[in-house]
Each structure stands twice: as structure tokens, then as C-alpha cells.
Amino acid sequence: MAPENDSAPETPEIATGSAHTPAPPSWKAILIGLVFAGLAAAAAAGLIAGYLDSRPVDFHPLTEERIADLDRLFAYNQVPAARIEKTAVEERRDETARWAYCDYKVDLPPELSVSGMERLLRRTMAERNVSVFDEPDQPEDTRVLRFSTAGKHFATVALTGVPDRRNLTEPARRLAQEVVHNLTGMAPVVERFERGAVEPQENEDTLWELVSVDAWIVSKDDVDTVAGGITTALSRDDVEIRVDSLETTGQTKVTVFYMGLECVRITLHATVPSSDMPLNGESLAGESETGDEEPPAPVPDPESLPLESEHLNGDATAPAMPQKPKTAEGPLRTAIIVDDGGYGGEIGESVLTLDPRLTLSILPWAPHSTDTAQRATELGFEVMLHMPMENSSDHNTFPGQLTVGMPAEEVHRLTKDALEDVPGAAGINNHTGSRFTSDAASMRAFLEGIKPLDLFFIDSRTISTSMAFEIAQEMDIPSASRDLFLDHESDKTYIRERFNQLIELTKKQGTAIGICHFRRTSVEVLREMLPEFEKAGIEIVHVSELLE
Length: 548
Description:
Elements: H1 27-54, E1 57-58, H2 60-76, E2 84-86, E3 90-93, E4 97-107, H3 114-126, E5 131-134, E6 143-149, E7 152-160, E8 166-167, H4 169-185, E9 190-202, E10 206-217, H5 223-233, E11 239-246, E12 251-258, E13 261-270, E14 286-287, E15 293-294, E16 332-341, H6 345-351, E17 359-362, H7 369-379, E18 382-389, H8 408-421, E19 427-432, H9 440-450, E20 456-459, H10 468-474, E21 479-481, E22 484-485, H11 492-509, E23 511-517, H12 520-535, E24 538-540
Parallel strand pairs: 1-4, 4-7, 8-10, 10-13, 16-17, 16-23, 16-24, 17-18, 18-19, 19-20, 20-21, 22-23
Antiparallel strand pairs: 2-4, 3-4, 5-6, 6-7, 9-10, 11-12, 12-13, 14-15
């Protein structure tokens, strides 16, 4: 018998034919891996940020544009290029940025003061986020300014010119306006008056203006009354009045001085009363003391007023301004503005007999401004104030005009006074103004003054650089800009061609705005051409219907 084996037989190992499967990683190992990956990413981000921080910021385009702003500002203000010495634009850089830089040496023409140009530079560039600093150690007779933006000094401007003189132009103009208002208020004792041309005056330390006024009084007995009225009305510490009787001519001269300077020269003429004698320069006929018939007094000639644009008019074959995109389908509409109203006479009366769908723009301080505005409104015309603004041609001045650099308070006051002289005005457009409308700060000051008055504004576009319409749009003031001047030549054939061009432009754009003037040939052609608009299917509308 075989011996008994007490242990159990071994079970043979079965091969599966596959590799051994490792145990899954623990959560601890996963967490450690994520931490190391995060640290590596943070390190990479830090390296990238450090690299980017070490790269200079590119301010070159910004500073080049600000330098171009300086160039434009000098050009707009009629500084001749020959008086500007400018270095080539160079690139400057430091550890953090790169930018453009240049130097200017500007020798201002006599009509521009150093202090006035400095104020203009500071105000205009401040609107572009540019800081202006005084250069240390100013040379004698030179004003040196440093211009910086984004903390980078990009230009130095050295201004030289004639010694600064006090400018009493505006006070002198206001005195002339006071004289006109007082003479107007003395009707019917003052039969009429005429204001002569403005004569710029200057001496070594002052700029001002002299205006001559001729006034016709109903009788010799009233001359002293008128002279005394002017003296009383203008009586104040800074004004001196001198009254002189000229025995050889029988005239009386009233001379108005401001701060010791002759500003207004009034000649009072004694005449005999005549019936139905209108005031302020209308053609008159009366009897002299000798019984001879006095010749009609001359009416101020609107034909001699400065044209709206000396720089931008276009011709009979091309519009002066770029064409606007055509408006939505609808009736074709044209607005025609007739500028320079307020001088009365035959031309003024003729305009008031035209289609009242025209818009009449009346100059303030003209002999018949108030009367024309009131009558036009009653007849159904739309009336605007034709506000005088500074032109680039210094000889084209107008009493009460707005000038570049004028304090905003003065701009608002003169505008308010002008509106009172043109009652019922629904809007305003500029008379001349190529310099004023090209200056952003001046236009903003003006438009800020009219915005609370709910008036609209029409940019006469007397120069291509005008910013008036664009700024009015930015300020949400109802506004528009003209398309064509119609009568910059007095030839009737030329004016007809311009009216036909306005018709064609209206067909292309849907709407258009044309400007003509209170002038004999213009009014004759306007009367003739109005039916042509109707034949072309174009409706004449007040300009307020075409506002944007």
C-alpha cells in the first residue's frame, strides 16, 4: 500500500497571454503634477510679459499727427510758410516708447501778436490732449513753448514777432454800434444816416478802428439836441466826447474817443423837414433851405459788400462742395438763401415781392435790418441772422463780427445783440468767416451760445477748411451746409448757369442748398429762374426743412 500523502496537490499556474497591468496613479501624484504644470505656465507667462514690457510703446503715429496739427494751425491763421523754420521730424525713443519730434521757429507777421498766438496754441492743442509748458530760460523777445502728449515731449515752438500791443478793436466797434443804435432811436429828428468804411488804426502800442458816420437832421435847431443826446448816451469814464461846430460848412462834428483814441467821427448835417422821410439811408428827396431840390441820398450799396467766399466757389460746371449721397426717395427739394439783407432800398423791396418760400438772411447793424426782418416774417419768409465772422482777409471787416481768440462771453454777447437787431430769426448762417469757421475752439464757443436758443445753423462754407457744420453736428445742433454759391459774378448768364447747376444737383442728391445775395442782377435772375424749379419737379422750401 502506498503511503498516504497528507498535503493537497499544487494547482498549476494558467498563462493568460497578456502583460501585467500596473496600478492606477494615486490622487496625490496627479495633484503634484498639476502644481508643477501651473508653475511652468506661470513662469512662461511672466517671461512673455517681461518681454512685452521691455518693448517700447509706439507713439510715433500719434505725435506725428499732433505735429501736423501745429502745421495746420499756423496755416489756418495765415502765418506765411517763409516765416516758419521747421526741423525735419526725427524719431526719439527711451526705454519705454518711441515718438516723433521737431522744432519750430516762427516769426509772426505784424498782424499776429505773440501773446495771441500763444493763447491760440494752448487752447487749440488742449482740445487734442496736448500739454503746453513754458521752456525754462526764455530768450529775450522770444516765447518758447514745449508740447507734450502721452508724457512725451514732441515739439518745441519759439515765437517771435512785433511787441504785443493792446487791442482795442472790439471796444471801438461797440462804440460805433452804440452810435448807430442811438441815431436809430432819434427818428424822426434824424432823417437818415450813413456809416462809412471801417478804418483800421494803430500806433506803437495799440490797435483799434475808426468809423465815420454822416447823419442828416431835420433842422438846424435839432442839431444840438442830437449832439447832446449822443454825449449823454455815451457818457462814462473811459469815453470822451468832443463837439465842434464848423461855421464854414454849417456842419457839427461829434468825435468819440475811447481811452484817448479817436474811434467814431460823426458829422451832423442840418436839412429842412420833408414829408414821409424814411430813416437810415433810403433814397430820399427834400427841399434845401434855398429851395433847390436836394439830390437823393445814396443807399448803401450791397453790391460792394465782401463776397461770401474768396477761396471756395466752384464754377459753372462743377459744384464747389463734394456731392452728398442722394436722400431717400421722395420729393425733390431745394432751399435758396438770399444773403446780405438789411440795406432797404429798391433791391430790398424787390426781394420782399418774391416767393416767400425763400429764406432771407439779414445782416445785423445794417440801416434796415430790424424792419426787413419784421416785414419778411409777416410775409411768410423764413428769416436768419447773417452773423459776421472773421475772414482771412483782414480788410473785410464788419461791425460786431466775431473774431478768433475772442472770449466766449464776448462771442455770446455779440451774438445776442445781433439777434436782437434781427428779430424773429429762426437760425443763423455765417457772413464771410473763413478764419473763424476754421477755428474749432471759436466755433464751439459760438455754437455753445446758440444751442440753448433752439436756433439752427447753416454753414455757408466760405472755405474748404471750415469745421462749422461738423462741430454743429457733434453738438446735436440742427444744421446743414450750402452746396452752391450762385452769384459770385454779376453776369446774368453766369448766374443762370449756376441756378441750372443747382437744379441738376438737386436731381442727383434729392436736396440742395444754394446761396445768392441781395443784388440787382441776382434778384432779377432769381425771379426769372424760380419757375424753372417747378418745371423740373423741384419744390422750393425753407432751409429749416433740410436740416440734418
